[in-house]
Design goal:
By secondary structure, the chain is α/β, with parallel strands linked by helices. β1, α2 and β2 form a beta-alpha-beta unit.
Length: 518
């Protein structure tokens, strides 16, 4: 008996079933989400209720974001001008000052050695980009005096220095102190250390004020639909009118297309399908996850494992006080916050307004980014057990096993689906099974190219979506190239979780936290 056809069917049929189910789920889920977004844009605000107005505080953790802090803050200032009761805390770190000092010393040593190679990071940390050619020339000739003049005249500003100027200007324009700056010590652990430093500073100013406040988080590349604040306030008002509790957490989902206009050539052709694939996941899976989770948390029935996203996440100040701030046990504090909420049964409700942000700038960054996210996702059971011990929470046995099953199944599919399809297609081709191969190819086209075209069409249909996402300005030749490159982008993106899974199987330590340089 020839085992190859048997092996081909054994792998190929489950692979076909998985991709048919996954493609259908994303197709239907994204259509439902877009309908919800369009509906939210046409609904009148709810009538006034007896509940106090909702206020917002947005924390913006920033590291080496001096080039974009102005744009990020100016965007949120638009909400304040529109009357949203919002204050913004820019959370920076002393690490940048230390990094700049070390970079300057490295450049001075290199000048003494007449060495100009291998100093890209030091140049980036020490001086403005326009000064890089002159610094390299001074290093090559060993001109320490010229180097000293350039370092003194054109240092790269830290985010703290840039943010202080931005905050002062915007506060003067607004006529009140809406933007504040908090500097976390260099010892504060990563992004979550900056978040908790900003949260403590904000809480100290809040004092005994017990009004309804949601503490949100946005990244430096976030350009959210500013209707998000009214839509959260509307949901709280509706709950108040019904005598129901407001959600502990609101979560936006994202469109990852905002920086595509800055890219050219092959880089753009690969980034476009990557951005649309992430956006499709947000629309087709994440929004639907929060919708189902929210409904089940309110009913007290068996709920899925949810995770939070570190931008467009708004947490009730009272809930943050209850859990002791943003969780610090994981480098992926946003995922861990969702796991903590899932364990406690705290509600995470979706907000029908998108956060428009950036996709990773190149394929290598995509792999590193998705691997970092996968490592945070793969430790979900460790996080759940730690929260269970810390909080003394004992969910029912069925609920506990449902959380574990959802997490393991999600991670298995994320890490191995591309490899599964590739192996199944190769086996079908080698075993001479054209019908199975045709089915696998058709499902790949539906899952990848079909998702690409559907998401592109949906962004164009959303009010303001084509303009905010930038897809309305992309040339036709790039859109066509992106459709062709979508299969390659699917494989490239899968390498992050796949290599992350292999690292964990080999018991290698996860890679260090990933940070894009803008």
């Amino acid at each position: 008996m020839d085992l190859l056809p048997v092996l081909s069917y054994t792998i190929g049929i489950p692979a076909a079933g998985y991709f048919a189910l996954a493609a259908a789920r994303l197709h239907v889920g994204s259509a439902r989400t877009v309908a919800a977004l369009r509906r939210a844009g046409t609904q009148p605000p709810p009538p006034a209720s007896g509940t106090p107005p909702v206020r917002f505080a947005v924390l913006m953790p920033m590291l080496r974001e001096d080039r974009v802090v102005d744009r990020a803050c100016a965007h949120l200032a638009g909400a304040i001008r529109a009357g949203v009761p919002l204050e913004v805390v820019i959370a920076v770190s002393e690490r940048e000052e230390h990094e700049r000092s070390r970079a300057v010393e490295a450049l001075r040593r290199a000048a003494g050695q007449r060495r100009s190679e291998g100093l890209d990071e030091a140049l980036t940390r020490a001086v403005r980009p326009e000064a890089h050619p002159r610094v390299r020339a001074a290093l090559a000739t060993g001109d320490e005096a010229a180097l000293g003049r350039i370092l003194a005249a054109e240092p790269r500003p830290t985010t703290a220095e840039a943010a202080a100027e931005v905050a002062d200007r915007l506060n003067a324009e607004l006529g009140r102190t809406a933007f504040r700056l908090v500097t976390a010590p260099a010892s504060a652990g990563g992004k979550v250390g900056q978040l908790n430093a900003a949260l403590r500073a904000w809480s100290d100013r809040r004092g005994a004020d017990r009004s309804t406040v949601y503490v949100g988080v946005y990244d430096a590349d976030s350009q959210p639909d500013l209707a998000v604040f009214d839509r959260m306030s509307g949901q709280v008002a509706v709950r108040g009118a019904q005598g129901a509790a407001a959600p502990e957490i609101f979560q936006q989902v994202s469109c990852y297309c905002r920086n595509l206009g800055d890219m050219r050539g092959l880089r753009a052709a690969l980034a476009l399908p990557d951005a649309l694939a992430q956006t499709r996941w947000a629309l087709g899976f994440e929004y639907e996850l929060y919708r189902r989770y929210s409904a089940r948390a309110r009913r007290g029935t068996l709920r899925p494992l949810a995770y939070c996203i570190g931008h467009g996440c708004f947490v009730s100040a009272d809930f943050l006080e209850r859990i002791g701030g943003f969780p610090t046990l994981s480098p992926n504090d946003d995922l861990a916050l969702g796991y903590q909420a899932s364990l406690l049964g705290a509600e995470i409700a979706p907000v029908p307004a998108l956060d428009y942000c950036d996709v990773a700038p190149d394929s290598l960054s995509t792999i590193r980014q998705s691997r970092f996210w996968f490592h945070g996702s793969a430790r979900f059971d460790t996080d759940l057990r730690a929260f269970r011990a810390e909080l003394g929470v004992r969910p029912g046995r069925l609920q506990w096993w449902a959380l574990l099953a959802a997490g393991h199944g999600r991670n298995l599919a994320w890490a191995w689906r591309a490899a599964l399809w590739t192996v199944a297609a190769l086996l079908a081709a080698v075993a001479g099974q054209p019908a199975l191969l045709a089915v696998l190819l058709a499902l790949h086209l539906w899952y990848v190219q079909g998702g690409y075209l559907q998401t592109l069409r949906q962004l164009r249909r959303l009010p303001g979506g084509a303009d905010r996402s930038g897809v309305g300005r992309l040339p036709l030749r790039l859109l066509a190239a992106g459709a062709v490159a979508a299969s390659a982008a699917f494989v490239i993106r899968s390498l992050g979780p796949l290599t992350g899974s292999l690292q964990l199987l080999a018991r290698r330590r996860p890679t260090r936290p990933w940070k894009v340089e803008r």
